[in-house]
Amino acid sequence: MATKIGIIGMGRIGNVHYKNLKQMSGITIEYICDIKADDTWEEKYPEAGKVVTDYHEVLESSDVEAVLICVPTNLHPSFIIDAANAGKAIFCEKPVGFNNEDILKAYKVVKDTGVVFQVGFNRRFDDSFDRIVDYRDAGNLGQPQVLKITSRDPEPPSLDYVKVSGGIFMDMTIHDFDMARFISGQEVESLHVFGNVLIEPEIKQYNDIDTAIITLKFKNGMLGVIDNSRKAVYGYDQRIELFGSEGMAHADNVLDSQTTYASKNGVVGDKPMWFFLQRYMKAYAKETKSFFEAVHGEHDVECTFEDGIRAIRLAEAAKESLKTGNEVKVKDIF
Amino acid sequence: MATKIGIIGMGRIGNVHYKNLKQMSGITIEYICDIKADDTWEEKYPEAGKVVTDYHEVLESSDVEAVLICVPTNLHPSFIIDAANAGKAIFCEKPVGFNNEDILKAYKVVKDTGVVFQVGFNRRFDDSFDRIVDYRDAGNLGQPQVLKITSRDPEPPSLDYVKVSGGIFMDMTIHDFDMARFISGQEVESLHVFGNVLIEPEIKQYNDIDTAIITLKFKNGMLGVIDNSRKAVYGYDQRIELFGSEGMAHADNVLDSQTTYASKNGVVGDKPMWFFLQRYMKAYAKETKSFFEAVHGEHDVECTFEDGIRAIRLAEAAKESLKTGNEVKVKDIF
Amino acid sequence: MATKIGIIGMGRIGNVHYKNLKQMSGITIEYICDIKADDTWEEKYPEAGKVVTDYHEVLESSDVEAVLICVPTNLHPSFIIDAANAGKAIFCEKPVGFNNEDILKAYKVVKDTGVVFQVGFNRRFDDSFDRIVDYRDAGNLGQPQVLKITSRDPEPPSLDYVKVSGGIFMDMTIHDFDMARFISGQEVESLHVFGNVLIEPEIKQYNDIDTAIITLKFKNGMLGVIDNSRKAVYGYDQRIELFGSEGMAHADNVLDSQTTYASKNGVVGDKPMWFFLQRYMKAYAKETKSFFEAVHGEHDVECTFEDGIRAIRLAEAAKESLKTGNEVKVKDIF
Amino acid sequence: MATKIGIIGMGRIGNVHYKNLKQMSGITIEYICDIKADDTWEEKYPEAGKVVTDYHEVLESSDVEAVLICVPTNLHPSFIIDAANAGKAIFCEKPVGFNNEDILKAYKVVKDTGVVFQVGFNRRFDDSFDRIVDYRDAGNLGQPQVLKITSRDPEPPSLDYVKVSGGIFMDMTIHDFDMARFISGQEVESLHVFGNVLIEPEIKQYNDIDTAIITLKFKNGMLGVIDNSRKAVYGYDQRIELFGSEGMAHADNVLDSQTTYASKNGVVGDKPMWFFLQRYMKAYAKETKSFFEAVHGEHDVECTFEDGIRAIRLAEAAKESLKTGNEVKVKDIF
């Protein structure tokens, strides 16, 4: 029998999950929920059983076994608490929240109720990045020593979005912070940031930056570096490299096609896939598939609440380092 | 309203189409049909409206608008005739038949009835190959002069399959023959074959070969070459190159991931995707999508009955060249 | 003590050898010889001991141990005979001659006198091609099955040159014929040619072509294909691939640099090195170094008179196949 | 007429220059000088006019126009002063010295005497790195924003060498510091270091490290990062990337060959060239060629004394940052 689910919040990422889930065997989208939903949505979302504007309706349905929380970040903690108290399995988009007190409250409720909880770090499900972990786990890299992550967006977000984004570290680098932990299998001890506004001067008024290099010192002694830019004209630049005593695994960009064109001006290859919806399309499908497998007890959750909080701790440390110019120790979950 | 369809023949390729179509918006799989179907199939194919063993049932349903013919090749012509006479739009797997007289009969009925007809040359829908055509059509290659196709399977088919396959040219090279026409946009005037049995000696008893190099002379004077092997240990090797007066477009293999591993033994990249179900997964979805768009009158069929017959004419010429050792002129459709 | 040598014929390739040899330890360029030499040459070639116009002077010098014959091809046989009779070790440019009777006469004198003789197939000394042979000899490829050579010049020769070149097979493909034997380690049984004039219509008046695909059937059953073009706008295209039962070795083009440029138009890499003087610069130095090692008895000649004749036999067969349209058996040395 | 030169110090790098210079047109190696030279050296260095043990002999020769100083770093300043006072053009290996007072004294004498002076930052003459600068200067990158340098040796130096090396920043990173300035065309304002001993524990007793990540803040606001390791098992890893508002130029490693091997284990490419003598062989020849062109007044020196001192200032700042854990401002020349 199919698992009945609800998607709460039908923004860009809610729609990604809708598209993937309507194609997934064994899943029935019983509800979609959005405060902006109106009469036209039933036609727009034909695979959705019911369209509602109040998420309590979803949580009150005894048919619904699991919910995907895709509302704005500041709402995550309260929605998590309500869903956990309603006994629903929860998939929550990243970051799990902005306010630390709220996050820890939500965390406590999730632990107390024992519901299945997964945070949406989709890049953990990318084939090329997973391959690095395969090499690491097989011992092919020996002792890991240096981790390098390049993460550049093809275009900066709108200033309206920047305003509510939580800043580059919480909004964009948070994925890289999670990758730093996931790819290395290690925790970060401290970090140091150099950042600047080189792309969009207007961003300064929001105390934000658009270009950053973050260096990491891991607890086991290994070192790491993340470089971020809000605008790479050639497309979404997502490369990771793990260097160790016995070798290096390097994940290069995924291109639009494998076709090159040689002319008197050189040999041109295709660009990296444009943005996250292209590059990580398959990873998004895999992360929700994995979530439902965890809901069905087939394996542990691959991306836990703790992972969600630790990434936030890294973002907080980065913010402080940018402000003070100093190396900053990364805090623990509590 | 959804288009209702039937899939006739649920072998390997019928299942590929089933999987794609059940995820396609606007399509309802009203019937699946296979002579081997039994009571367990309704559970096995939950998205199929009805499971039947006699394809006449499918054709007689007035709900069904289109059928996919995925039965063994020798049955294609008669199934095409019946489906056309029933007024169904037809998607037929390649090759359209073995016996020339039967093929032409089926062709006539399709023309007379005027039903939409598409042949299953899935590679026309591969992103990397399409990119070559884009470069050609944009004039970036100037006057095309040389076409090169490398097409190697990862493992030879079973001898049982070889027996009924129609031979390497009809079974395997037929895709490359279609690609030769599609990528160049030109017709082949004559061809010459060198072939041998280098992989599986047993294949000889069926008058077949497993390794071939076919050279092509196009009507417009350009030249081409196809090299085939039934066994590339490193995986499915599918590369195409179109060389012209102003440049060359080259489609390389699609790999399992973009991750490399550098060690003291060299720098290892991932292998080409294993076989056609991996490499062309997306192309299979695109070809049926394109078929239904043609059914709905959104554009012309991208892969016509004529294309199906011309590829067969090339396969027939190749067979003759292998036998006689001579250059052989390629026959017209009739 | 340095080996004293003479270079006979100071055209393009004579100058290449001059440049390499003046830098080679243990070599003294005692003579350069060219019928066009005049008083200005002593300044132009400061490292040359003497500049002469008559090659007999070089051969008569008892100091000279070895000569490099770089005169036009039609003169090769008589110069070889004179040099062999003078007891000089001989390095002769490819092809060893045009007229078969003359070639065999020269061959006999070389055998009778027992002088060291090397023919100038420089590509045997290219690092990337040698690497294919390494893989083959190490057994990494298993049983070789298919050989593929792409060989395209960046620009066609002048019509003046075409006139005396001996035709594309004797002038250009001869290198590829030698590579076919060298890379495979096998002899060719027969071949078939498709050729055309697609680049320079004027070439037709000399009964020559500018585009060709030559397929090869080897004595051990393996197959091969060479594709030639006189004009690749993106530069000198020199790729070789040897495919076998256990793997494939593929030598790609050598580029001007390893630097790519990613912009909104794609990712551009550098072009292949422009032409043979760039791509094979290092190979030219290695071939003469190897020759002098053979002169000093350090190893056998790596590229023999027999190799020179066999390549010519392949060129002759290609000419015939182009004329008749038939598969042609390759003749033995005698 | 040939320029007469002397090479002072015949260690590893002195021998590299000897080998290049003996092949260079217009150069006569009048002297080689080394305190360890003995009677056997005349045979060992046949192209050297005279072999001496006291460098004053070289400086006193009125024939000698230029000297290459290849002695241990601590001797550089006094040798520079003597050579400048003798009116010789000077090519001095990097770094120009260890002791700041001595360096500035030498700098003053060079300026006062006006002799031509070049420091041996060979990487400025690498084709792939130069290509990045070409793209930058052509405006293809727009406004440079992020510079990334990966620089890893294939094996750590001996502990004996580590002892006198001046530490990783002065010995190894100094090249990368120069590259940071050369590739960006900008000066560094401040830097921050994370470093550790992850490869050779014994190195700790010399207060040195073997793994480092250095982040750079440039005066114009752009950011940079250098990552160093003393041991990459796959060979010398030398990559540079300059990212800007309009594109990115990326110089990848130069490989031993362009040949790949595809087997059932993946597709293996050749490794990066083993170490600096392989990778930068051509760059070493180009840097001395450029020096002699500057000596002959054909162009300005491409790598000045100031460049040598600025790289040292960066190394000094890195040392301090490693010690204090803080961001450190880079000092000016004086």
TrEMBL record, chains A, B, C, D:
Gene3D superfamilies reported in the protein's UniProt record: Dihydrodipicolinate Reductase, domain 2 (3.30.360.10), NAD(P)-binding Rossmann-like Domain (3.40.50.720)
InterPro entries: Gfo/Idh/MocA-like_OxRdtase_N, GFO_IDH_MocA-like_dom, Myo_inos_IolG, NAD(P)-bd_dom_sf
Residue ranges of every copy of the GFO/IDH/MocA-like oxidoreductase domain listed in the record: 136-249
Residue ranges crossing the lipid bilayer per the database entry: none
SUPFAM superfamilies: Glyceraldehyde-3-phosphate dehydrogenase-like, C-terminal domain, NAD(P)-binding Rossmann-fold domains
GO molecular function, one term: nucleotide binding
Alphabetical keyword list: Oxidoreductase
Domain of life: Bacteria
Span of domain Gfo/Idh/MocA-like oxidoreductase N-terminal: 4-121
PANTHER family found in the cross-reference section: BINDING ROSSMANN FOLD OXIDOREDUCTASE, PUTATIVE (AFU_ORTHOLOGUE AFUA_2G10240)-RELATED, NAD(P)-BINDING ROSSMANN-FOLD SUPERFAMILY PROTEIN-RELATED
UniProt record similarity statement: Belongs to the Gfo/Idh/MocA family.
Protein name per the record: Inositol 2-dehydrogenase
